Amino acid sequence: LVISKSQIELLIEYQLSGDYFNKNKHSHGYYIIGIPLIRYFLQRDKMDRTIVHMDLDSFFVSVERLLDSSLNGKPVIIGGNSDRGVVASCSYEARQFGVHAAMSSKMAKKLCPQAIFVQGDYENYSNYSNIVTEIIKEQAPVVEKASIDEHYIDISGMERFIKPSMIWTHELRERIIKESGLPISFGLSANKTVSK
């Protein structure tokens, strides 16, 4: 079992904050205050799983709109503008015309001639992705970054010691939107496949 120093510090903070942990027993009969961190993780593996999938909505387009508000509400395509270009991402306004990722730019122009093409900047996307990742890591003990715009969070067992998982996840989503300016949605289930 490998956990980072920040994850250990986060769990320590959870264990020492408030009166909840002094008054409520773990389901196995232990007080969470008295459980060594490693024992907590071992017990966590026996609990019902609670997995959060967080997905940044139309991520590339959302970043470009943060940088240029004139793109808001317009059909935007991220990708090369030449006939040999490929659509990397597109806004919901462009999708209404049948445009989708991996489509040739030539076909996208035919379907949506009024679309605005943006070359895209992967460095910018990476920077914003890292901002979101750091916000999540500050709040969650176990995080898997699945891609530049997707994260899985294992919050199994946290509901017993902190707050209901739906409330916790909703609050995390609101914090990400507020601090990054990016729209994000989430799914909550017992495994990664269903939560996605």
How would you describe this protein?
Mean pLDDT is 82; it is low at 15-36. The protein has 9 helices and 7 strands. The chain has helices at 5-16, 20-23, 37-44, 59-67, 92-95, 105-111, 122-139, 165-180, 192-195; strands at 51-56, 76-79, 87-90, 116-118, 143-147, 150-154, 184-189. With 196 residues, the protein is of the alpha+beta class. 42% of the residues lie in helices and 17% in strands. The relative contact order is 0.18. The protein is elongated.
The biggest beta sheet is recorded as: 4 strands, antiparallel
Structural class: alpha+beta
Average pLDDT score: 82
Total strand count, please? 7
DSSP helix count?
Answer: 9
The helix content, as a percent range, equals 40-55%
The coarse silhouette is: elongated
Low-confidence stretches: 15-36
* Order of helical and strand elements: HHHEHEEHHEHEEHEH
Distance between the termini: 25 Å
Attribute tags:
single chain; 196 residues; alpha+beta; 3-stranded mixed sheet; 9 helices
Short summary:
Helix content is 42%, strand content 17%.
Explain the layout of strands and helices.
Layout lengths: L4 H12 L3 H4 L13 H8 L6 E6 L2 H9 L8 E4 L7 E4 L1 H4 L9 H7 L4 E3 L3 H18 L3 E5 L2 E5 L10 H16 L3 E6 L2 H4 L1
